[in-house]
Amino acid sequence: LSDLVVFGRRAGMGAAEFAKQNGQWPAVDEIEIQNHVHRTIAPFERSGENPYTVHSALQDVMGKYVGIFRSENDLQEGLRELLSVRERIKNTHVEGSVMFNPGWHLARDLENLQVCAEATCQSALLRKESRGAHSRTDFPKEDPQLAKVNMCVKKSADGMTVSATPCPTMPEELRKLLQ
Question: Scanning 21, 77, 88, 140, which has its CA 20 to 30 A from the CA of 60?
Answer without folding.
Answer: 140
